[in-house]
Design a protein that fits this description.
The protein has 102 residues and is mostly helical. Helix content is 49%, strand content 6%.
Length: 102
Amino acid sequence: MHDTPGAFVIPNPWDAGSARILAAMGFKALATASSGMAFGLGLPDGAVTPDLVLQRCRGLITATNLTVSADMEKGFGDSPESVAETIRADAAVGRDQARVGH
């Protein structure tokens, strides 16, 4: 998408239902937003755990066949090791979904 002429708009769903609506509207990709995800769960921004973010990302990927860019809150850590762990977990979500056809 970055190689095509012009800009593309990437909206921020907060759950599977909003992802399906945005996909039906013709968007080509989706991006999570930490605040939207948190507020959709009734939590303040920054209060969603890494496991819950990954769970919600799985839901977005399962709900549509679109690419999902995830806001992973600065890697959910301050050390390179903790950020690497977050990146591995995030990548695993994409691999798992690719195995089931998305």
